[in-house]
Amino acid sequence: MTVTIEQYSKMVDDFAWYGIGDIFEIAKAAKLLGRNYMTDIAERKLLLMNSKK
After folding, report:
1. Is residue 53 pLDDT above 80, yes or no?
2. Residues 6+ away with beta carbon under 8 Å from 34
3. What is the pLDDT of residue 52?
4. Most buried among 12, 19, 33, 41, using CB within 10 Å?
5. Could you tell me the residue ranges of all domains in the chain?
6. Contact 14, 21 (CB under 8 A)
7. Is 48 helix (H, G, I), strand (E, B) or coil?
8. Cα 51 from chain centroid?
9. Which tens digit of pLDDT belongs to each residue from 29-51?
10. What angle do CA 34, 37, 41 make, to 5 degrees?
11. Structural contact between residues 29 and 1, judged by C-beta atoms closer than 8 angstroms
12. DSSP assignment of 5-40, as one string?
């Protein structure tokens, strides 16, 4: 499996904002990229919450 940061970012956005996607695929991609998917998802959810204020 190869994934770019752009693909990973879209996966995280879709999951955090729309509830679409597979958390296990996101976790695999994050591991390949050296990212922390839990932090990335939390940051995106926080952005969404702040944008609704």
Report:
1. no
2. none
3. 82
4. 12
5. 5-51
6. yes
7. helix
8. 17
9. 999 999 999 999 999 999 988 98
10. 145
11. yes
12. HHHHHHHHHIIIII--S-HHHHHHHHHHHT--HHHH
Residue with the two structure tokens 């499996």: 1
- Per-residue tokens: 29: 């991609």
Question: What is the residue whose two structure tokens read 């729309």?
Answer: 18
**pLDDT recorded at residue 48:** 86
Per-residue b or e along 11-48, where b marks 16 or more CB atoms closer than 10 Å to that residue's CB? bbbebbeeeeeeeeebeebbeebebebeebbeebeeee
What pLDDT digit, counting tens, does each position of 15-26 carry? 999 999 999 999
Burial class (CB in 10 A: 0-12, 13-18, 19+), 53: exposed
